[in-house]
């Protein structure tokens, strides 16, 4: 298992000096029936700032579905993306955008490069992609989003990470929870591999859920889902 630090739905990769977040879905609240001042934009910005301050990464990699709407970014959503980019730059981190399936119009909110997949480190070879399509680059570790994993324990649904060793072309796969708190998450308790929606997670039984205990400041790894389901 590769060295990863888990915090607040994000992952810090020390060997890449990169912070990775996925599925921000900027503009989701605005697109719903709830007023956008619900506070999600401010929450995303403040939480990202806290993570950048804590880890001081060289890069922040946005692993897809930065935007929620497929057809374009509203003015407010574009401002939200700009604010997140500013958080990175003010913290001395380079923002890197990776395209998700929702990001067909990301260029309306971001004028830099948009990667289908991004090599975050050469040793170990680490590729960040969204996870909705199989990557072309071979790697030792793939870091993805898209699935929005959560796990229900004692009737409480919690966002979780999923870590699978050697599960995709012999490489490890780390699936991040959605960074936005507006996404309740998809409970993995009863999912099979084909239900994940990602070609990198075709055998969910082999993935270990990792749940962050934010109060204790630690990540709690559980047995692989194939074993853990019997305990739930």
UniProtKB/TrEMBL annotation:
Stretches assigned to the Calcineurin-like phosphoesterase domain: 19-132
Signal peptide feature range: none
Gene3D superfamilies: 3.60.21.10
Superkingdom of the source species: Archaea
InterPro entries given in the database record: Calcineurin-like_PHP (IPR004843), Metallo-depent_PP-like (IPR029052), Pesterase_MJ0037-like (IPR024173)
Record PANTHER family: BLR1149 PROTEIN
Protein name: Metallophosphoesterase
Source organism (scientific name): Halogeometricum luteum
């Amino acid at each position: 298992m590769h060295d990863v630090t888990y915090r607040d739905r994000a992952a810090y990769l020390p060997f890449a000096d990169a912070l990775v977040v996925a599925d921000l879905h900027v503009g989701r609240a605005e697109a719903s029936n709830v007023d956008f001042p619900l506070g999600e934009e401010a929450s995303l910005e403040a939480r990202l700032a806290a993570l950048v301050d804590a880890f001081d990464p060289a890069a922040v990699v946005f692993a897809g579905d930065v935007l929620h709407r497929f057809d374009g970014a509203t003015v407010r959503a574009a401002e939200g993306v700009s604010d997140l980019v500013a958080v990175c730059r003010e913290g001395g981190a380079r923002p890197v955008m990776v395209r998700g399936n929702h990001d067909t119009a990301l260029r309306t909110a971001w004028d830099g490069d948009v990667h289908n997949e991004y090599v975050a480190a050469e040793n170990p070879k680490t590729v960040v992609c969204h996870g909705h399509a199989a990557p072309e680059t071979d790697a030792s570790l793939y870091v993805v989003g898209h699935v929005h994993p959560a796990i229900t324990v004692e009737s409480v649904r919690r966002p979780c990470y999923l870590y699978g060793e050697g599960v995709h072309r012999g490489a490890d796969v780390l699936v991040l929870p959605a960074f936005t708190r507006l996404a309740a998450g998809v409970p993995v308790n009863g999912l099979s591999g084909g239900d994940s929606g990602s070609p990198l997670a075709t055998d969910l039984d082999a993935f270990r859920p990792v749940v962050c205990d934010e109060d204790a400041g630690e990540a709690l790894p559980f047995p692989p889902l194939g074993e853990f389901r019997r305990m739930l």
